[in-house]
């Protein structure tokens, strides 16, 4: 694989990513190509112009010199205009592609499948957005056109030089094989190094991200020294790889310089000899010397470009890796489109579900449950029993390996993802707050009116707190809601669910962070909310679900008991043991593990 990349210098991922973008910005690239051809012509014309000026000067032809002045001015004007247009078109191509790449990547990440998202590290993803896109950007625009320009200018100038003096042209041509071999070897080394550099840079972004997100844990577990050590180690490695890259690039450029100087020196000596024996004019040598640079820099410049291209290719591969990840599947094998978006729920059934996050490790095994419509069904069980997984499957964040979930007798795959998720209001275990105002965090894009929003906040008993904030509902609550307590965040999450007003309500330990008094208040509103809806509640505090219409007890991905609280308390099973253990989450979880071990 590596050899293949080395040989071609450009692999499938790079082509797949870059080509459509270039195609999209064809106008800018066409302009850059025209400018490139104009510049090529200018190169030859200016060299010929210098030769004529030199010959006129050496032979004291003053009239010819005067005639040449407008030509020189014309060439200068065209050159300046071409450079200005080049710069504008280059910006249009580079920034246009940068914008498109960022949009593409962001859109893809938004719709990635849950299992992919959970395996990706956020810092590494951020690094792909900034670091990798910058490197690709560095290779676009006229640099990309240079990939064509350099060989073209080399061939054109070589033909022109052959026309002036065959021997000199052949001598200057000798540089080519050395430069091409060196560029291939160095290109390969730099690309490999750049890939490692990108990965460590991603790791470092991840570490910084984790430091910001987990700073409470870092402080309370006195991990500062450990984090500092990790950061130092990563930055040392980044420095080492950057230096290696710089040395490789430096060697490469120095090699190019040596090749250029040597060619010039040999050509100058040989040219002087040809002038002295009368087989070449001074003007021809000046034209030759002016053009000889164009026999060297396309090789060294292409080499420099090659270095950048290798870096960009490594980055393009990393971006394409994400874009290659499959997205959530919108349609299923059933292909039934339900016309209802806000339909009432008549029935909800988990039928013979088997699911595992990893192959061969089932979390749910042949799980069967008929959830009564418009009733409150509670799911309890030890930590890791698979309760939250049921919700994830219902939301189609994951697809079961076997079995199906049916809403109103239709497999959930019959609905579009949007339809399905519109039917569900979900209060997850952990509340995520966006960096924005309280209002934005409550509405989450919903079109609910001001009074509906305030009603929901009141029902979730968060309204007085919001009003006590400096800007009320317009107060910015900061990134990840750091200025709010766990209970306040949870009440915002409950208010969101109330605003969504969906027929199916999923509560995953929705009141676990509330104190007893607040929980009692919120429970009143939740009970009111649950009255008209099919509700599934996961709870560790069993006191909160004693009034549930139906209680399902889960163990290791299976239902081990079902019934009402009174019925289950009469049975000698897991439910009664859970009640006896105590009703708080940590106790339950730790006892759970002991049970499992036993
Ligand atoms: N994204 C994931 N990738 C891999 N394994 C997972 C993932 N999420 C959960 N698991 C595993 O699946 C099992 C069931 O997890 P789940 O969250 O459904 O349990 P739970 O009953 O809700 O637990 P808790 O009461 O502690 O929230 C656990 O062993 C857990 O480690």
UniProtKB/TrEMBL annotation:
Coiled-coil portions: none
MF terms (GO), sorted A to Z: ATP binding
Transmembrane segments: 31-51, 71-97, 144-164, 170-190, 251-275, 281-300
Gene3D superfamilies in UniProt: ABC transporter type 1, transmembrane domain (1.20.1560.10), P-loop containing nucleotide triphosphate hydrolases (3.40.50.300)
Keyword annotations from UniProtKB, A to Z: ATP-binding, Membrane, Nucleotide-binding, Transmembrane, Transmembrane helix
Highest taxon, organism lineage: Bacteria
Domain ABC transmembrane type-1 residues, every copy: 31-311
InterPro entries noted in UniProt: AAA+_ATPase, ABC1_TM_dom, ABC1_TM_sf, ABC_transporter-like_ATP-bd, ABC_transporter-like_CS, P-loop_NTPase, Type_1_exporter
Transmembrane helix as UniProt keyword: yes
Main location: membrane
Record-annotated ABC transporter domain positions: 348-581
Record SMART domains: AAA
Pfam families membership: ABC_membrane, ABC_tran
Compartmental location: Cell membrane
Record membrane topology: Multi-pass membrane protein
Protein name per UniProt: ABC transporter ATP-binding protein
Protein species of origin: Sporolactobacillus shoreicorticis
């Amino acid at each position: 694989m590596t050899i293949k990349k080395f040989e071609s210098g450009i692999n499938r991922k790079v082509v797949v990513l870059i080509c459509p973008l270039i195609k999209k910005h064809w106008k800018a690239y066409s302009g850059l190509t025209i400018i490139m051809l104009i510049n090529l012509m200018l190169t030859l014309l200016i060299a010929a112009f210098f030769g004529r000026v030199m010959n006129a000067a050496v032979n004291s032809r003053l009239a010819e010199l005067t005639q040449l002045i407008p030509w020189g001015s014309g060439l200068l004007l065209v050159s300046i205009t071409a450079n200005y247009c080049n710069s504008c078109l280059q910006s249009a191509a580079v920034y246009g592609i940068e914008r498109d790449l960022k949009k593409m990547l962001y859109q893809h990440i938004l719709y990635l499948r849950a299992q992919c998202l959970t395996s990706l590290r956020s810092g590494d993803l951020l690094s792909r957005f900034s670091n990798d896109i910058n490197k690709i950007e560095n290779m676009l625009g006229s640099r990309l056109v240079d990939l064509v320009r350099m060989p073209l200018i080399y061939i054109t100038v070589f033909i022109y030089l052959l026309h002036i003096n065959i021997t000199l042209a052949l001598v200057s041509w000798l540089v080519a094989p050395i430069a091409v071999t060196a560029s291939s070897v160095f290109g390969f080394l730099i690309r490999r190094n750049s890939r490692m550099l990108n990965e460590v840079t991603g790791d470092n972004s991840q570490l910084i991200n984790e430091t910001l997100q987990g700073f409470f844990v870092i402080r309370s577990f006195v991990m500062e020294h450990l984090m500092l050590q990790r950061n130092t180690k990563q930055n040392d490695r980044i420095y080492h790889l950057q230096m290696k890259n710089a040395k490789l690039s430096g060697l490469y450029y120095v090699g190019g310089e040596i090749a250029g100087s040597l060619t010039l020196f040999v050509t100058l000596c040989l040219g002087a000899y040809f002038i002295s024996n009368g087989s070449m004019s001074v003007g021809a040598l000046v034209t030759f010397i002016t053009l000889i640079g164009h026999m060297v820099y396309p090789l060294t410049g292409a080499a420099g470009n090659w270095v950048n291209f290798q870096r960009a290719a490594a980055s393009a591969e990393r971006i394409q890796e994400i874009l290659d990840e499959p997205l959530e599947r919108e349609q299923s094998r059933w292909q039934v489109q339900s016309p209802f978006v806000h339909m009432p729920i008549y029935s909800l059934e988990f039928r013979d579900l088997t699911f595992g996050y990893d192959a061969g490790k089932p979390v749910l095994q042949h799980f069967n449950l008929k959830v009564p419509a418009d009733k409150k069904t509670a799911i309890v069980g030890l930590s890791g029993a698979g309760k939250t997984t049921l919700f994830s499957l219902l939301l189609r964040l994951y697809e079961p390996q076997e079995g199906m979930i049916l809403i109103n007798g239709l497999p959930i795959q019959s609905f579009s993802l949007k339809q399905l998720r519109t039917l569900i209001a979900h209060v997850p275990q952990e509340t995520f707050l966006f960096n924005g105002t309280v209002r934005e965090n409550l509405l989450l894009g919903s079109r609910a009116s001001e009074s509906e929003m305030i009603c929901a906040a009141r029902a979730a008993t968060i309204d007085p707190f919001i009003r006590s904030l400096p800007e009320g509902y317009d107060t910015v609550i900061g990134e990840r809601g750091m200025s709010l307590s766990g209970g306040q965040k949870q009440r915002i999450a409950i208010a969101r669910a109330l605003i969504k007003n969906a027929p199916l309500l999923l509560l995953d330990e929705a009141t676990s962070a509330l104190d007893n008094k607040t929980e009692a208040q919120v429970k009143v509103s939740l009970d009111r909310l649950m009255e008209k809806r099919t509700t599934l509640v996961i709870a560790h505090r069993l006191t909160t679900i004693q009034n549930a219409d139906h209680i399902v007890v889960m163990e290791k991905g299976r239902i081990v008991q079902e019934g009402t609280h009174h019925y289950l308390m009469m049975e000698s099973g897991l439910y009664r043991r859970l009640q006896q253990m105590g009703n708080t989450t940590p106790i339950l979880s730790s006892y759970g593990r002991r049970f499992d071990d036993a």
